[in-house]
Each structure stands twice: as structure tokens, then as C-alpha cells.
Amino acid sequence: KMTQQMRDLQLAQARKPPGPSSPNAAKRLYRNLSGKFRVNYTSFDEGSLVGRGEKEKLRKSYLFQSNAALFEAVELQDLDRVQELLKHYSPEELDLNTPNSEGLLPLDIAIMTNNAPIARALLQAGAKESPHFVSLESRSLHLSTLVREAEQRVNELMAQVVNEAPNADCSEKEKQLKAWEWRFRLYKRMKAGFEHARVPDAPSSVHLSVASSSSLQVTFWEPLSVNSAVVTKYKVEWSCCPTFSPLLGEAVIDKLKDLHFTIQGLVSGTAYHVRVSAYNMKGWGPPQASAPPFAIPSNWREYDGRAPRRRGQAEALDHLLGQVKTVHQHCICHEPCKNQPQSRKHSVSKSLKHLFHPGSKFLKTLKRGLYLTAIFYKDDNILVTHEDQIPVVEIDDTYSCLLMQDFLWFTKVSCMWDEILWLRQCVTVSQSSCSCILQTRFKMLLAISQMQGLLGIQDLGQVFFEPIKDKQGNILIVTLKEVKTNQTFESVRWVPICKLQTSRKSVSSPEEPTALDTLLISVQDKLAYHQRSSHALSPGLYLGYLKLCSAVDQIRVLVPERLPNILCHVKIRSNPNISREEWEWLQKMASVEEPVPTEPEADMSQNPLFQELQVAIKELMALVNIPLQEAKDFRLYSQEVLDFGDQVSFLLLLPPSDDVCTAPGQNNPYTPRSGFLTLPLQIFELGEER
Hints:
By secondary structure, the chain is of the alpha+beta class. It has four domains: about 55-195, Alpha Horseshoe (Serine Threonine Protein Phosphatase 5, Tetratricopeptide repeat); about 205-300, Immunoglobulin-like, CATH 2.60.40; about 370-535, Nucleoside Triphosphate Pyrophosphohydrolase (Alpha-Beta Complex); about 540-590 and about 600-690, Nucleoside Triphosphate Pyrophosphohydrolase. It comes from Rhagologus leucostigma.
């Protein structure tokens, strides 16, 4: 018998025996396990275990019970229990793809009882169908055998119960009879589900897009009707011929969390046709051709053969910096530092002990001058000195008005924290001119070195985009760095931010707060800015809005508070690539010198990019509070697509030429709603690089 062969195979491979044979047993088992789902097995009292062997046996026992509980939860069609098990155990721990003694997998039971929610949950967890069902005939024969043997067992037990006198053995046989009757009904339901099912319909929609000059992206959706059987995989086929003969390639997709596939290794400039078909336990359904019917791998740079803007730039800058260092390495002023290491390789836990050294030169109060403070934070705690003060060092006690150019120079230095010693020596060489600017910047480098030395840490983090000033003439430059390690530091004092703020209020003046008071009052906002400025965009093509405003000594750019390292933007689509054909269309629009269209036109209604841009422009105008009719005078920047790596790209939407940059005193009639800020352009560029 096929069933017997299955069982022999399981015994040969040392498979697990079946779980509880009745719904009541399954419920009892699940109740016993439910209290342990939220506790890893290593959290049990290890003192009660004699040794590692006993602990491993206990672990295997619980994993076996979880495997049995999964089978029973699927058979009982209990979605909540299935999801709970999948959440707290890995597929390996559940033996998700190990058949039971009947040759069935959890996914087999789910799809043959047509339980779509459980089947989808199992598929997303990586469940497979049993490999023993190599054909429709083998599956049908196996189900018929299970039904026949279960019916035979029910008849045998029923005869025994009827013929035997009431006793303990009879009571046990009655329990077995109920369990087999339940299993008999389950197998009949599975057999009926298989017999009534048909192959699935074609996928409801297949979208084809150009992913690069050598790849296409295929996105598809489930069939409108699966014909009483859950779809367990899809097949993507591609060919240069619309008849798909010959077939160039195919791929079977059985991980159904995301229904998309990227066809790699294609020839640029060649048209490819694509189709997708769905599969269930009855076989493959009819294919669905893609829309558009074909696509040509390409990239917008192929339009004029343009090379990537940043190709080789990092290498060229490193080479230039190396040349500058070579020129200065033989200077007399560099001799004392030759024996000093360029970077202190203290561990964080050891180096932070410098905070509590009695010879520390951190300041407790500010006088009239320019200062540097470094904020290190972890969760809701902040690092303080042994006197419960934020680390502060003096830059210049005679400097009462920070020039923006000096501050922007300081932010550029923050990209070279490891090179401060070398920069100090270079500025020392140039100091013969006695330039006030050079003297100020040399003092900045000295203050940075002092902060690094006292902390024992080279990397002071990211500079906050504007210094803090008070009426007493103090100016405070703030750096921010998050400590992500979970290590507990010895002799290092982490103080809750709220506690530090409370203690500071008792000694500060609410009428005229100092720069330190202002820092502590707004520290949560600054930490939030720091965290948001390191977030990355998800892959895709975006439409960005470029709006500048100028002041006497700087140009500022409008950015969203939730992502201050990126222009105001909305997502156009998930595919970041602009194909050559799409770029040609954008160039044609720009050459006509017509404004950006916001309403559909008959000859463009079939252009997917045109439709996507229409939606994106409306969404972006609403975001920045500009009436849609004003967008008719806006322009798309047609010189290039801004590529940020391989996964993110931008098209820029520009106001009319006279309104791109608002001059000092010029009114802007359309002020963005709350949730935006303006950053100095150089600060924005540095944040973008980070």
C-alpha cells in the first residue's frame, strides 16, 4: 500500500511519530504549551538540570510538542494557534517541512481542506508541499488509502466497543473510536476538497517594468478565482518571441510574501515578452501575458552615454588627501606627532572613564564665548561627567559672534574626526599670517582635540545644524552621537534625560536661560533630529521639491522634519530605474517648454510614467501647501536623474526660475504647513552624504 510505503519511509528517515489523535488531546497539548510560547527554552531554571544532556532532551521534547501542536492546529483549522506557533518558533524548530507518519505536511492539510488563511500563513513562513505527491494520481491514491484505512479502523473499534462488556478497556477503546471517527471525517474532507478543486485561473494582472539595462521587474497579483484550491507557487517565463517559442527562461516562485520577480542577465536594447501562471494542487493554470506586452532593458544614461556623476569621486578625493599629507609630512611641526597614533584605539568602556578623572577640564558654567559640547545618548539616558554635567569645553572666550562660515567649516571638520591632529599641524604651519579666521579655526581644532582627549573617543558624532545662542553672549556648538552597544560601562554615569532636566531647572534662570539651559530644554528635539537624519528611504523613484531661501551669509533649503537629510518628496513608484524610453519622453516634454501637465491628455493617457507623475505632483503640492493650479508653471529638472546608490533615484520639481530661491525680505505666498524646516545648504549636503 502507498500509505505503508510512506510510513516505512518515515521510519527509515527517523521521522517523528504523529501527534495527538483527537481534537481534545490537541487542545490539552496546546494549553500546556501556550504558557511557554513567550519564554525561550533556555530561560528554564538551569539549576534543576543535571547537565547539558538533560537540557538538550528537554529542548527536543518541547520542540517535538510544538511540531505536534502545529499539525493539530492546522487540522482543527485554528488560525490563531497556527500564527502563535509560527511567531514563537522557527521553521526549523517546528520541522515545518517534515512529513508526519501519514506522509502529510501541514501545508498539505491546509490546502486540501481549502483553508486559505492558514495556507497563506504557512507559505509565508516557508512551508512546502509534500514531495511525495509527484502526480495527481499519486495524491488521489494516497487520500483514498487514508480514507479507507481510517474507515476500516473505525469499523474495527466500533465492533469491539459493541461486543465488549463495559470496563476500563472499553472506555479507552471508546476514546480511540471517537478519535478515529474525527480523523476519518478529516480525511474525507481532504479527499473531497482535492476532487472538487480545479487548476487556478491566470493571475489577475501582470505588470512589466524596466529595472536596469540588464534586468526587468515582473509584478503580479493573485488570480481572481483559485477554484477551491490555494495557489502555492507561480511560474514566470520570458522569450524574445510573442509566441514564447523558443522559451529563453523560466523561474518558479514559491516564496509568496512578495509577488514580484526580477529577471536578470538580459541583453540591453532587446525586447522581451513575459507571462506568469499560477499553480495549485491540481496543476498549472493558464498564463497571463504582461502589460505592457514587452519591455526593453535600458537606463536613462544610455540616451546620451553619460557616466555616473560620482564615479571615481571618492577615490579621487582620497588620492588628493594623500597627496596633501605627503607634502606636509616632512614639516618640522609634524615631527612631534610622528610617534603618536592617528587614532586612539581605546574601547568605549575604558575610554569613557576619562569623564571622571579628577584632572578633567570640562566646564560647569559658561562665560561670554564660544564652546563645544558633545552629547552621547543611549535610549533615554545621556552621558554626563562626574559632576552631572554635559561635557563642555571652551573654544574661544573672546569670540562673541560666530560667523556662519566658521560654523560651516566646523561641520566639514566633523567628517574627519580621525584627522584632527594632522589638521592642527597644518593650520599651525599657516598661522604665520596671523589671520583671525585661521586663529579661530585653530582654536576649534584645539577644542576638538581636548574633547577627544578627555573622552578618549575620536568620533564625536554629527554636528547639530545650528549653534545655540543666549543673551549673555554664549554660543554653543553641539555634536550628537548615539551609543548603540548594550554593554554596561564601569564607572560611567548614564543619567536619565528627565532627571538631568529637573536638576538643571533648580539652578537656571527662566527669564534669561543660558545656552546650556536651552540645550537641556530642547535636547529631546535634537536627539529626534539626529535619529531622523540617519533614516534611509525605501527603494524607489521619488519626486523631490527644490525650494531655497537666501540670507546675507547663507542659502537654506526646505526639508521635512521627519527626514531632514532628504528634500521634500513623495514616492512615484517602487522601481527606481528610469528607462531610456521614459527619459526620451521627459526630454521631449522639456524641449516643448510647456509647463508640467496636471490633467490627462488623450495621447499621453497610456504612458505609465505620465500617469505616475500626475499622481505624484498632486500629492507633493498638497504636502507643501501649494495650490495645484500654481504647479502649471512648475518644471521638471531634465538635465539628469539624481541617483543615490542603486536603489533610490529622484526627479526634481522646480518652481518658476524667479521663485526657486526666495531672496531676503521677499514674501512667499505659499508657506508649507507644520512639519518642515530649512537647513543651511552645506549642512544639508553633509547630511545627505551621511
